[in-house]
Structures are given as structure tokens and as C-alpha cells.
Amino acid sequence: MNRRYFVAKSSIIAILITMILSAGLSAQDNAASPVAVISPSPWSTLRSDSITVSFQADLEMLPNKSVDFRVVRRSGARSTTLFTRNVKMEADNSADVFLGRSRDVPLGGTDYLAIEWSVPGTEHRGTVEPVGLVRLAGEIVDNAWVPARPALSAMRLQDGVPGEDAAAALAAGENGFEVGGARFAAGWNTESLFILFTPAAGVTGAEFAFDLKCGKNAFLSWADRFIVYSVEGDSIYGRHYNRGAVDVEGMKFEELRWGDGREREIAAIEAGSARLISVRWSELGAQTFDGRNIGFSVFVENRTRSRSASHPAAAARNIPGTWGDLKLAN
Fold first, then answer.
1. Which pTM value belongs to this model?
2. Is 109 exposed, middle or buried (0-12, 13-18, 19+ CB in 10 A)?
3. Which H or E element spans position 237?
4. What is the pLDDT of residues 73-121, one digit of tens each?
5. Residue 77 φ then ψ, to 5°
6. Could you say which DSSP state residue 278 is in?
């Protein structure tokens, strides 16, 4: 037998044996945990102030036939215990347990809940984090969810419309809205989304937030997009975020840039005293159709105010579940 072939074959066999043993050890490690939390899972968004946990336990590995739970609120490196509960496990190996109610709703962004469990009399413990809270306001009508706050309307524009014509149509339309003294109007066609922005005195910039999947979640995801426009620099760019580690120092997000205006993926076109901001749907990663809703919010910076104004008024920049909606009109 060729020696080189024998050495290569032996190496492959050794790698396969290592992979099998590693898989076996991992399976044993997972099987060694006496508690498996079914829900909530990490990065979950609960839709009420109630925190309930569903879990399964190996009764043979519970010396005191119980599991301790602790719900902790975390903000950066700070943590506060909200409530604790000891759950008895006499016969059934699964349970759905109400742990308590949070006073803070919504809760998300870089503030979150951690659900910690431990088995009394052992070293077994674990944590489910982050968990957020966003209560959606509205009602179900004819088996469809109807939000309490009506969506803003984006005017349907002709495909291929020149920028100056799009700006004129939006300026003359009736779907405008005001935030922090600045005036806005939205429009769309199959190619791009348009926002006409007319700044007021003292306004230094505006940021537009898009939740394209309309998930209304407590935490930013890769798909959420922001467009940032500076009035003084007449500059525009996009940013979004990559979820990083969650540890004792808190939650970390990596800021990523997208679109710089040079290739017209995102652009700010002069329209008299206003600016027509346009972004291609392909850059937002969305498909268009009449009547589609997307999560949408506007944040306006003003040098004379200590905090930014927003639409909706109670919107929190880092919690998409607090943003409003933008409907693509027919």
C-alpha cells in the first residue's frame, strides 16, 4: 500500500474518531443538565408584563425535588433582582410557572431581563437572557390584528419618477406629518421609498428607523435599518446593528454602515428648502406591494432641546416594538 495514501487515510480516520468522541461528550454535557427551559428563549419578546417560564426537569437529579428561579433586570453592568420563586417538582417532570410581573413595560434595547434557575443542593444552574417586554396596543377584528395607533401613509408614486417631481407630489399631498417642528411626507414606488424632509429652525438632523419584518420586538436585529441625515453637513448614510455578546458587562451591539449616497442606494436630493431622501427597496431588503405595513419611526435632533422629538411620541430608538407603522398606499 502506498505510504502517502496510508498516512492520509489514517489522518482522516483520526479526525472522524475525534469528531465522534466530541459529539458524544457534548451530548453527555447537554444530558447532564437537570433543567431544560422551553420558553422563553434568549432574545424573546414577551407581550405582557407577566413573566412565565415553561421547563422540564429530571426528577432524579433534584435532591430537594425543587428548582429555584430568579428574575433579574439588567442594565449594563447593573443588575436588580425583581422576584424569586421555588418550584416543587413532586411527580410531573414539566411545569408552566408564573414568576411575577414587571413594572417596566416596554423593556428592551440594552435593558433586559435574565431568568436564572438553579437546583438547590447542587452546582447546577443556568440563565436565559436577554428577554424583553413589549405590550402591543390594539385589538383583534375579524381575526386580524388592528393596532390602536393608525399607520402613517406613504403616497403611491409613478415608477421612474424624477426626484423633483416626487418632491412636488409629496409637498402637495395630504399625508404629511410633523415631528419636532420639522415637516415630513412619505411616498413610494416599486424602486424606492421617498421621504420629503423640511427642517425647521434649530433642527440639526433626523434619523429614520425601519422594522421591515414588522416584528415589533424588544431588541434590534440585523434586518432593522436606520437612515441618518445631517442638516448642517447635508450628509446621509445608513446604519444597522449586529447582536454581540451578553455577559456581566451587559449587552453589546456592533454598529455597521450601509450606503453612503455615492451610489444612490441612499440619497438626499435638494428640493428648495426641503430634502428628498430616497432609499432603494433592494437596500432595505424588502419587497413592495399595495397595502404593506412596515415598522417606521422618526427621531429629530434639535440644538435647542435636551432630547430628540420622535414619531410616535413614545418611541424608543432601540426598541422596535415602540415604533409606529408606515403603510404603502394604493
1. 0.84
2. buried
3. strand 235-247
4. 999 999 999 999 999 998 899 999 999 999 999 999 999 999 999 999 9
5. -85, -5
6. E
